[in-house]
Amino acid sequence: ILAQGRCSSILREHTSCNGMTTYWIVAGACTDESAKENILSTLSGKLGTRVAQDGSPPTHFMDNLKPETALKSGSFDDLINLTDELQKADSQVEGMLRRSERQALELDPNVQLKIFLGESEVEFERYIRNWRWDSTKYDRSRFISQNMRFLLQNMTKFDEEARLSLTRYNELKAQNNNIAKKGDSLPLTARDLIDTLSPDVVKASGGADDDVVTTENLTTVFVVVPRGEDKEFLSQYEFFADADDNEEASLGTDGVVPMSAKKLTAGDKFIEDRDGNTLYRVVLFKSSLGKFKKKSKEAGFSVREFTYSEAGYSRLIADRERLEDLLATDHKVLLEHSRCLWSDLMVSWVHIKAMRVFVESVLRYGSGSGGAQSFVSFLFAPKMNSAAAVRKVLRDVIGKDETKQPGVETGAAAEDDDEYFNYVSVSLTPFTPHTVI
């Protein structure tokens, strides 16, 4: 994945979507190498301001595919099959590309997605305008169909690895969320008391004024008292563990320790939630816990069973720090891999686009004599909302006269909402709408 890159996005047919640039790759018939510059000059002049400002002017595309380095397409039947296969591959790679972009943005909304070439990063604009076929990865001695399958095999493998990495990251993130401090926004009846009753708040030194008392027979419970009901609670709580009329009391082993209710504080303030509920501790016999909870609930008070442990709190803090460190490391690695995957997918996708333009141009215009190209291709980004006018210019400048030589209507030629053009046309939108890189 690290081989090629890190940034960019996607390709779709319609011009600038919500301000996002869409590039067009177009091709028309041309058997004279010397005429290519004239065609480019004519095209640039006629397009004029339609590619200015938020667009970019035309430039040659696939100009490095000379006769001696032309792509190997096979027979006519192979070309026909390739048009369908390449369209499917186009959609498949785009889907993986979009997913990798979303993943990178979810990990870091400010992520910089760029193409990685060797040791350097380049913006997509610079990459696409200086694009060259990568013979190192996609050997031109192989047929286009072989390169396409090789590309898909690698990209599918990288995409699956990225999904597994994301799954592992999300599992770790879930573990971290489960033990992370939830803050004081939750009510006292629902929050985990381990952060509320931390060692810096609770007195548990073995003294007479300890907040927590735990012996063989005694235990400490914590009671949430609604706002304004302190007086009612203090007048009733000592009777919450008393025996019912039909029960026999066990002297010395049942009941609440008299006057053990204590309103807890954190620093110089009482512990309370946003609703004004406060927290009391009560010491009682363990055998009376069930009865105390039942009668407290009937009286409108919520008993929170919580076993205070300084050692347990320390272990929790250590676990939190360990998971946070692991999560931060995994986040960094996953983000870098997402950028690399995105770049590899983008580079692969552009190569798929080039294969489509080449195959469909050969179908329309033939292979030329001596292996020379029979077509010329250009790349540019039309100005927003100028698609119709640009299409007319392209039809006039590079379009084939269908009345003299009917062409073959292929996938790329009909890509724009199934509208047929008398030239080859493929488009790419590097980034998804609303995504600002």
From TrEMBL:
Keywords: Hydrogen ion transport, Ion transport, Transport. GO terms for cellular component: vacuolar proton-transporting V-type ATPase, V1 domain. It holds the Pfam family V-ATPase_C. One of its GO terms (molecular function) is proton-transporting ATPase activity, rotational mechanism. Gene3D superfamilies: subunit c (vma5p) of the yeast v-atpase, domain 2. Subunit of the V1 complex of vacuolar(H+)-ATPase (V-ATPase), a multisubunit enzyme composed of a peripheral complex (V1) that hydrolyzes ATP and a membrane integral complex (V0) that translocates protons. V-ATPase is responsible for acidifying and maintaining the pH of intracellular compartments and in some cell types, is targeted to the plasma membrane, where it is responsible for acidifying the extracellular environment. Subunit C is necessary for the assembly of the catalytic sector of the enzyme and is likely to have a specific function in its catalytic activity. PANTHER family: V-TYPE PROTON ATPASE SUBUNIT C. Belongs to the V-ATPase C subunit family. V-ATPase is a heteromultimeric enzyme composed of a peripheral catalytic V1 complex (components A to H) attached to an integral membrane V0 proton pore complex. This is V-type proton ATPase subunit C. The lineage of its organism: Eukaryota, Sar, Alveolata, Dinophyceae, Noctilucales.
